[in-house]
Amino acid sequence: MLNFKIKKKVFLNCLATVQGASEKKGSLSIVSNLLIENIDNNFIKISATDLEISIITYCSAEIISKGKITVNSKKIYSIIKEFPENKITASDNTSDNLYIDFIENESGMVTINYRKTIFKLTTVPAIDYPTIIDFKSEDNFDIDLKILKTLISNVIFSTALNEDTKRNLTGVYFVLVNSNEKDYLRLVATDGHRLSLTQFKIDYMGEKNDGIYNLLKTGIIIPKKILTEILKLDKEGVVNILINLNNVIFEFKKQSDETNKNTKFISRLIDGKFPDYETIIPKDGYKTSIINTKKFYNSIKMVSLLAEEKSHSIELGFTENNLLVKTVNTNIGEASDEIEIDYKGEPMNIKLNSRYIMDFIVNISEDSVSTRFNTIYTPFVIEPHVENNDDKIMYTIGVFMPMRY
Fold first, then answer.
1. Cα–Cα distance between 46 and 17 in angstroms, integer?
2. Rounded-to-integer distance, Cα 193 and Cα 191, Å
3. Which of 50, 61, 147, 265 could link 6 by a cystine bridge, Cβ 3.0 to 4.6 Å?
4. What proportion of the chain, given as a percentage, has pLDDT over 90?
5. Domain range enclosing 340
6. What pLDDT is attached to residue 95?
7. What pLDDT, on a 0 to 100 scale, did the predictor assign at position 316?
8. CATH number, domain at 212?
9. Is 135 part of any domain?
10. What's the domain count of the chain?
């Protein structure tokens, strides 16, 4: 029977990490539980899965007796979160007051003690818990977590909703591209109305023309849910990415003595072929403008307050060195705003979804953006404006289909 002592902060951090993988309302009730087990005398392993994604993490604890048990994920997290912080007062003459006691009894009930507070939780036998897929491979690559989160943030909003489209559009497409003898990790997402693409130069150290390299050259679709969980991580460091034909593992290298192994985020890949996105991105012959990023975002945000709730439509009117942002809502009223831009082409009006544009611009750190467009029917393109951008380490572009008048 499992029995251990653990610091509140350590336990809470581990529980928070795995929360997103436990199913809150599923047909299989046990996946709303966490699997907690000892690894040796100094660490526990906590696992969660919803059968599509899984998270495994480790944290330091004083193991009194060995075992494994499953407890409700949401309940134990809420309980530990409500416990007061570990602070020594004048009346605390023993370090025992700084630890949570986790005790399983013979009937399968778990008792959680902290100072004078006691909770008792029912459990489900660990033998009933689903097996979590895990694998190792020497064929992998590393990427900085901060960079990975930036790449994901640049595109994830363009994924389609699960309930209204094809499943192959509900994830993010990861593909390895080679340009000028350099490898780039490219992420692409689209819902059919907009497309976001971002890429970053990586040093791929694995075997080329084999294994994961060929798989990434073809491209894989990773579910939005596991990527959303990665964005929640409040840590820095290096991520090791392992991929096979059906699964992907993001392994976060340990950063402290409070864990003895790396935290793993595991997910099934989405079956299906990703659309031929390169044919959608315009190449040449387009009218161009340069717009201050902050002014562009604020202008659209302000005017869109009166945009229709379903379409979120606004109209961008381009004239020489001027942009008119406006919307007309027959039920409420109308709004407009003008900003100075760098534009020398012929006058052009184009109708777009304001939410789509803001979703993309909000992630741009550069001071200015470049836009490209041709007619009211062809794609509208936005990308960060960077001088001397021929050998760019990171590259991002957004493509938006105009709305009908």
1. 10
2. 6
3. 61
4. 70
5. 281-400
6. 46
7. 97
8. 3.10.150.10
9. no
10. 3
